[in-house]
Amino acid sequence: MPNGSLYELLHSHSKPPNWTRRVRFALQIARGVHFLHSSNPPVIHRDIKSSNILIDGNFSARLGDFGLSLRGHVEDVVVKSTPPAGTLGYLDPAYLAPSDLSTKSDVFSFGILLLEIISGRNAIDVNYSPPSVVDWAVPLIKSGEYTEIYDPRLTSPEDDGTLRQLAVVAARCVRKTAAKRPAMAEVVEWLKLVYKRMSSPIWNNIGRRVGRVRESTRVVKYEPLDESMEIVKISRMGSRRNRKVSNVTTTELGSAVIGQKVKPVIRSKSIGSLGEIASEPFDLANNNNNQTVRRKGGLAVKMPTVRLSKSRSMGMIQSSTRLMHK
């Protein structure tokens, strides 16, 4: 591919992609995975990771490397008899035996990829503690410290509520219990809303004129309750920095340039093997599946929004807070 892989753009490129492009990549990948899962029979990729996302000349993301993929329903003999496979760091922890495989395993891998897109960190990075991106990011998301996981090489967008939404989607995808994870159809609809909001000209114009609408002392707190309910609380914001580990021996397989600093990175390799399956190529960028968004669970997110109103003599912009239910 002309522009290499998403892994190279995120970790090895001197100019990392901006937020709008990252959200667009995430949406295109989600559409591709949903295409596989909705096929008849369905296809489970089993190796979704940034190095398997190829970027074409139009900077559109395409899902590649179907070497570990399985075609068929989960009750099929071939699927049930194939041992678990995948890449460390992206591999579903609930996928311990052939009978555990489902489309939700791909959802978990996609959630790890989404955290990688948001943070710019590798799925596994032994330079940090904890080394796993999910063990590091999810506690910060639950405590409302969203800004701690944003890629420090980029500035926050004018409407940084979009990144908070993106982080919550990722946290849902990487739940330990497979049954609690959303289907890729739901993920696609959520990401469509995030991308539409981030790329909307009105948000950019408002941001330039009146600045970002934010609550400086309060943050949204995401706290799962049980299988069917989740709640968002408002609390005082703390701060938790990345804890760099200096005495850990690392295996340097490559280097990623971040600004003027070069840091060693490790690229995980897939575990397991299977012959490639025949699959028709598809374009992730041109999938225009418009479905009605279905809200599930009891997630309530309190976010700053902006509405426009006029007085009798002049236009004025007022900020308000709207309670959105998901």
UniProtKB/TrEMBL annotation:
MF terms from GO for this chain are: ATP binding; protein kinase activity
One Pfam family from the record:
PK_Tyr_Ser-Thr
Task: Tell me which InterPro entries the record gives.
Answer: Kinase-like_dom_sf, Prot_kinase_dom, Ser-Thr/Tyr_kinase_cat_dom, Ser/Thr_kinase_AS
TM region(s), chain numbering: none
Q: Which residues form a coiled coil?
A: none
List residues of the Protein kinase domain. Answer: 1-194
Q: Which UniProt keywords apply?
A: Kinase, Transferase
Q: Which SUPFAM superfamilies match?
A: Protein kinase-like (PK-like) (SSF56112)
Please give the PANTHER family that the UniProt record associates with this protein.
PROTEIN KINASE DOMAIN-CONTAINING PROTEIN, SERINE/THREONINE-PROTEIN KINASE-LIKE PROTEIN CCR4
Name of the protein? Putative serine/threonine-protein kinase-like protein-like
- What species does this protein belong to? Solanum chacoense
